[in-house]
Write a structure and sequence with these properties.
This protein is mostly helical. It has one domain: Rhodopsin 7-helix transmembrane proteins (Rhopdopsin 7-helix transmembrane proteins, Up-down Bundle). 73% of the residues lie in helices and 3% in strands. It has a two-stranded antiparallel sheet. α4 runs antiparallel to α5. The termini are far apart. The chain binds retinal (RET). The site of retinal has 18 residues, from α4, α5, α6, α7 and α8.
Length: 266
C-alpha cells in the first residue's frame, strides 16, 4: 500500500483561497463575530446582577470562540485533506474543516449554560446537557477524521446523534418546565425553538455534505454551517442579551442554580 503524502498547511491554505466561496464562508464569520463581541460588551456595560452578568459572559464567549475558530479555518491551521473511504466521493481527497467540530466543543456548552441559567435549571440538568453536548461534538470530530472505514464514520455519527438526543431532551422537556416556574417561559420558548431548529441543520448538512454521502460540495457545506452559525450564535445571543440587559426580576430573582430537584420551593 502506498503511503499517503502529507499535505502541508501552505498547500491547504492555497486550496482554500483557490475557492472564493469557501474562503468567504470563513471571513464573513470572522467579521460578524468581531462586531458581535463589540455590540454585546456595549449592551452589557451597566449590568450589575451576578446571574445576569454570568449569562452575559457565557454568551459573549460564543463569538469569542467563533472568531478564533474561523481564524483557525481561514489560516488553514484547522483544515486537513482527508481521503474519503466511501460514499459519492470514495477515494477522493476532500478538505475537512475539522476545526469546526473542535471549537463547537467550546462554544456550544456556553450556549447551553446561558440557556440553562435563563430557564433556572438545577445543576444536574445543566451538567447533563453540557456533558452530552461536549460528547456530541467530540464524537462528531471522530466521525469527520475517521478515514479507515466508511461504516465507522457513520458509526461515530450515530453515537454523536444519540448524545444530541439527550441535549434535545433537556432543552425540549426539562428546561421548559423550569422556565415556566422561573417566569422566563416566553423568551425561553423563542430561544429554544431557534436553537432546536438550527442545531438540527448541522447533522443534516454533515450527512449531505462532502464528509457524509457527498451530494453537497465542500464550499456549499461550509457556507451552510456558516449560515447556521449566524443564527445559532449571533442572532441567538442578540435576542437573549436584549432580554437580560434590562435585568428583569425573572433573571435577578431568587430562582437560581441548585443541586436539588427544583429551584424554587413553595
Ligand atoms: C455533527 C455530526 C455528527 C452528528 C451530530 C452533529 C451535531 C452538531 C451540532 C452542532 C451545533 C453547533 C453549533 C455551533 C455554534 O457555535 C457533529 C454535525 C448530531 C448540533 C450550534
Amino acid at each position: 500500500m502506498l503511503l499517503q503524502e502529507a499535505v502541508s498547511q501552505a498547500e491547504v491554505f492555497d486550496m482554500i483561497y483557490e475557492d472564493a466561496v469557501l474562503a468567504s464562508s470563513f471571513w464573513v464569520n470572522v467579521a460578524l463575530a468581531g462586531l458581535s463581541i463589540l455590540l454585546f460588551v456595549y449592551m452589557g456595560r451597566d449590568v450589575e446582577d451576578p446571574r445576569a452578568q454570568l449569562i452575559f459572559v457565557a454568551t459573549i464567549v460564543v463569538p469569542v470562540v467563533s472568531l478564533s475558530s474561523y481564524l483557525g479555518l481561514a489560516s488553514g491551521l484547522t483544515v486537513s485533506v482527508v481521503e474519503m473511504p466511501g460514499g459519492a466521493l470514495a477515494g477522493e481527497e476532500v478538505l475537512s474543516m475539522w476545526g469546526r467540530y473542535l471549537t463547537w466543543t467550546l462554544s456550544t456548552p456556553m450556549i447551553l449554560l446561558a440557556l440553562g441559567l435563563l430557564a433556572g435549571s438545577n445543576s444536574t440538568k445543566l451538567f447533563t446537557a453540557v456533558v452530552f453536548d461536549v460528547a456530541m461534538c467530540v464524537t462528531g470530530l471522530a466521525a469527520a477524521l475517521t478515514t479507515s472505514s466508511y461504516a465507522l464514520r457513520w458509526g461515530w455519527y450515530g453515537v454523536s446523534c444519540t448524545f444530541f438526543a439527550v441535549v434535545l431532551y433537556v432543552l425540549l422537556v426539562e428546561w421548559p418546565k423550569d422556565a415556566a416556574e422561573t417566569g422566563t417561559a416566553e423568551i425561553f420558548s423563542t430561544l429554544k425553538l431557534l436553537t432546536v431548529i438550527l442545531w438540527f441543520g448541522y447533522p443534516v448538512f454533515w450527512a449531505l455534505g462532502a464528509e457524509g454521502i457527498g451530494v453537497l460540495g465542500v464550499a456549499v457545506t461550509s457556507w451552510a454551517y456558516s449560515a447556521l452559525d449566524v443564527g445559532a450564535k449571533y442572532v441567538f445571543a442578540y435576542l437573549l442579551l436584549s432580554y437580560v440587559a434590562d435585568e428583569p426580576a425573572s433573571v435577578t430573582g431568587p430562582t437560581g442554580l441548585s443541586g436539588g430537584a427544583t429551584a424554587v420551593d413553595d
